[in-house]
Design brief:
Elements lengths: L9 H10 L2 H8 L3 H15 L4 E3 L4 E3 L1 H10 L2 H17 L3 E7 L1 H18 L3 E7 L13 E5 L7 E15 L1 H7 L13 E4 L7 E6 L2 E6 L4 E3 L2 H9 L4 E5 H9 L4 E3 L7 E9 L6 H13 L7
Parallel strand pairs: 3-4, 3-5, 7-10, 7-11
Antiparallel strand pairs: 1-2, 5-13, 6-11, 6-12, 6-13, 8-9
């Protein structure tokens, strides 16, 4: 079934006026004669003026109809071209992709992925905001967010990318001087470097064998940036609790050492989030697929 003419009868009127025939107009537009007639009548009712005189033998433009037809010549091809341009954003990888990403995740993992995507898709530009804030994607005009969250929101599609374990660690220099905690309660005796953006405040939560401990800490250093916390920890200033996607290289090369590793601290789930819409732009789908494919295997662990 053909959809209602989006131009509210303009295409039907122009085509009838061109041929002075409802039958020929219907053939050209791929509609029934009755649909063409109904759309022209609706247009006349909207304008409050008769555009065509109809008889059993002929269709004739009224004076108003002739003036209206002359003013509209050429508009339909322009509108169709505009429609094709708009549809290309759905079908092709074009336009600006506006996204928000946690600064630490972007700094550690996304720069080379974004660079490669731009090289492969020359008709795309990318506008990134680095933020931990849960930006309202729809109200603020964003196409995509990368988030470390498990909170499901209405009108958004959430695609799971990976899980990054949280660990407590410190530099060998710090542990040599102050010793490594062997039980969570000993954290109170250590300098703790804490991420200020945690919704549960200045508490480190550890679990083992069905037991959950909530250890209050008094941060020696408090920051809302994981990379800064990592660097201060590497410099030997204290213990920090961070996801592995921020400290994986430092753990692997020994600049940071994990402590209390028999306790579970949880993980940070990483998601791609975008507005729920059946006409998701190709640039969003393509970038999300590219990101998932290109993230290194050790990005989260």
């Amino acid at each position: 079934m053909r959809s209602v003419d989006p131009l509210e009868g303009l295409a039907s009127f122009i085509t009838v006026a061109k041929h002075l025939s409802f039958t020929k107009a219907a053939e050209e537009l791929g509609m029934s004669r009755a649909t063409v007639g109904a759309q022209v009548q609706a247009l006349e009712a909207k304008l409050g003026v008769r555009l065509l005189q109809r008889s059993t033998r002929a269709v004739v433009l009224t004076e108003a109809g002739a003036a209206y037809f002359q003013s509209l010549i050429g508009i339909i091809p322009q509108v169709r071209e505009a429609e094709r341009a708009a549809q290309s954003y759905q079908e092709e990888v074009v336009g600006r992709l506006k996204m928000t990403v946690p600064p630490e995740f972007a700094q550690m993992h996304m720069a080379p992925i974004i660079a490669e995507f731009l090289k492969r898709n020359p008709s795309v530009s990318i506008d990134v905001t680095f933020s931990h804030r849960a930006i309202n994607l729809i109200d603020e005009g964003y196409d995509l967010a990368i988030r470390g969250t498990i909170v499901l929101e209405p009108n958004l599609i959430t695609r799971h990318i990976g899980d990054s374990p949280l660990i407590i660690c410190a530099a060998p220099e710090y542990l040599e001087k102050h010793g490594a905690p062997t039980e969570p309660i000993e954290l109170a005796d250590h300098a703790c470097l804490h991420f200020s953006g945690l919704r549960w405040g200045n508490v480190w939560v550890l679990k083992r064998d069905g037991l959950t401990l909530r250890i209050p800490i008094v941060p020696r250093y408090l920051a809302n940036d994981g990379i800064t916390l990592r660097d201060v920890a590497v410099a030997g200033a204290g213990l920090t609790l961070l996801p592995m996607f921020e400290i994986g290289p430092e753990i692997r090369d020994g600049r940071l050492v994990r402590v209390l590793d028999s306790w579970e601290i949880g993980s940070v789930p990483i998601h791609a989030v975008y507005p729920a819409n059946k006409n998701i732009a190709s640039k969003v789908r393509r970038f999300t697929d590219f990101l998932v494919k290109r993230l290194p295997q050790d990005a989260f662990s």
